[in-house]
Design a protein that fits this description.
Oligomer: single chain
CATH topology: Beta Polymerase, domain 2
Distance between the termini: 39 Å
Low-confidence stretches: none
Strand order of the largest sheet: 1-2-5-4-3
Strand content: 15-25%
Number of strands: 5
CATH class: Alpha Beta
Radius of gyration: 16 Å
CATH architecture: 2-Layer Sandwich
Length: about 170
């Protein structure tokens, strides 16, 4: 998969709305909330053009019963995919367009972590600028190596997450 980081696009929020409606229709009463997260949810942030969506559900185990319906709308169900208590889906194969990270409403750590980083980047210009620049530089340096791209962001993201959580829990 070629790593491509682009300037923020207004259409990303519309793409989130369209996809979240499909997810709401499938998850029905199991769904408590649905959030646009990740870099495409932050205006003016350079990002890989992949829409990250975080549905919050009553019971994470019930999400597995939606795998066939999610597959019918183009999603590949991948179970926890490295994060305990999550259900992960991706859409688009090598031309990835969407990631879905489903968490149970009692999983406060993962929910707050995603929302804190999103909200922090929305309100802190320098962090947003620095993160966007780093991602763009790494995409140029490692256009075909997602592991090196991710490793290059790791320390920055861990520090960002720490600052964002402190800020988020204090407000």
């Amino acid at each position: 998969m070629k790593i491509k980081v682009v300037e923020y696009r207004e259409e990303w929020s519309k793409l989130f709305q369209v996809e979240s409606k499909k997810i709401q229709d499938i998850f029905g009463k199991e769904l408590i909330a649905i959030h646009h997260i990740g870099s495409t949810s932050v205006p003016h942030l350079n990002a890989k053009p992949i829409i990250d969506i975080m549905p919050i559900v009553k019971k994470i185990e019930h999400v597995d019963s939606f795998n066939i319906q999610m597959s019918k709308i183009g999603y590949e169900p991948l179970g926890e995919y490295g994060i305990e208590g999550r259900r992960f889906f991706r859409k688009g194969g090598d031309q990835r367009t969407h990631h879905i990270h489903v968490f149970q409403n009692t999983n406060k750590n993962d929910m707050e972590r995603h929302l804190a980083v999103r909200d922090y980047l929305r309100t802190h210009y320098e962090a947003r600028r620095d993160y966007g620049n780093l991602k763009r530089e790494l995409a140029i340096k490692f256009p075909n190596n997602i592991n090196s791209y991710s490793d290059g962001k790791d320390e920055f993201v861990k520090n960002l997450e720490r600052k964002a959580l402190l800020w988020y829990l204090e407000k």
